[in-house]
Amino acid sequence: MTEILILADIEGSSGCWSYAASAFKTGQWARACLEMTRDVDAVARALCDRGAGRVVIQDFHRTGYNLLPELIDRRAVVRSGYRVGPVPGMGDPGDSRLVMMLGMHAASGTPGFLAHTLTSRLEAVLVEGRHVAEAELFAAALAPYGLRPVFFSGCPLACRQAAAALPGIATFAIDKEQGPVRFDASAWRRQLAGAAADALDLPQAAVYHLAGPVRAEIVFRRGAPEARRVAARWKLDCRGSSVFLEASHMADLYRRLVQVCYLTPVAKALAPLAIRLANLKGRLGLGWVRRRLRGWGQLSYRS
Ligand SMILES: [Zn+2]
Q1: 157 C-alpha vs ligand 1 centroid, how far in Å?
Q2: What is the distance in A from the centroid of ligand 1 to the CA of 248?
Q3: Distance between CA atoms of residues 257 and 280, nearest Å
Q4: Looking at the 3D structure of the chain, how many domains does it have?
Q5: CA of 62 to the centre of ligand 1 (A)
Q6: Which residues have CB atoms below 5 A from the ion given as ligand 1?
Q7: Which domain holds residue 43?
Q8: Nearest by Cα to 140 from 187, 96, 87
Q9: What percent of the chain has pLDDT over 70?
């Protein structure tokens, strides 16, 4: 039996149609959390029905508390919030052999739906002139643990970027051009779940090859002042609104990017405490989502 790690994001899920729906504590976000939960549940159910072993779902958007675990197939394990290591944010991938990425988006600096790499503060992350998407960074971060990236879902451009960076991965797109009104979420979700289950037998998807070293250019949206601040903080080269990072390979680049985007050297030393506080904020946010949904009559149970 194959154990599977699912990384679940919100931008490319079926209930997120605007930036507000990916933000924190907005009405659109509360609704998007419910739809994202239904997408992830459909996939987890299909994988378990198809004979997958343990399915672990890592909630991987913003606070890490978007999914409503009580609405997800009991055979799967939902991990909310973030962990310090060994894989930044994800913790220990355990015995998982395959990774699937749901609800994803395209890379910063490309025209996909709500495109960004780690944070919208980054205008672009470039390696050898190529935009780097999260799919590649996550696959690289999991490569030392032998996880094969087999399935990816997001907007059409995000799918093309994932397929280019991770040859052999199966993709399933969500087209957000037409808007939500004519979008049939349940039909799309059924197809998504079927495509994910089919990817269980995908021999051509390989563990990401960690070639190195890599030199990355990180362009800051707010321009030179922010680039200078970050460069001084982490002792990096800086030119205009760009900071340059030398990493031994892509997994190392992911680790360094997480530091540069989310931490200061002081916060890095206090990371376990900082993550505990961030996770508390996430839990409170999810409590707010439940109250909102209950108020609209969309959740009938008490938890
Ligand atoms: Zn996200």
Answers
A1: 16
A2: 26
A3: 23
A4: 1
A5: 6
A6: 9, 11, 61
A7: 4-116+133-208+271-295
A8: 87
A9: 99
For residue 263, the CA-to-ligand 1 centroid distance in Å is 18
Backbone angles phi, psi at 134, to 5 degrees: -60, -35
Q: With respect to residue 257, please indicate whether it lies within any of the assigned structural domains.
A: no
Cα of 155 to ligand 1 centre, how many Å? 13
The answer to the question of residue 112 being in a domain is yes
The CA-based dihedral angle spanning residues 111, 116, 121, 123, taken in that order and rounded to the nearest 10 degrees: -40
Residue appearing with tokens 């209930």: 15
List pLDDT tens digits, range 66-91. Answer: 999 999 999 999 999 998 889 999 99
- Give tens-digit pLDDT for 222-276: 999 999 999 999 999 999 999 999 999 999 999 999 988 887 777 777 778 888 9
Please check whether residue 241 lies inside any domain of the structure.
Answer: no
pLDDT tens figures, 24-79? 999 999 999 999 999 999 999 999 999 999 999 999 999 999 999 999 999 999 99
Amino acid at the residue 253: L
Give 178 Cα–ligand 1 centroid separation in angstroms. 21
Question: Against a cut of 0.85, is the pTM above it?
Answer: yes
Q: How far is the CA of 63 from the centre of ligand 1 (A)?
A: 9
What CATH number is associated with residue 61? 3.40.50.10780
The answer to whether residue 245 sits within a structural domain is no
**CB-CB contact of 7 with 100 (8 Å):** yes
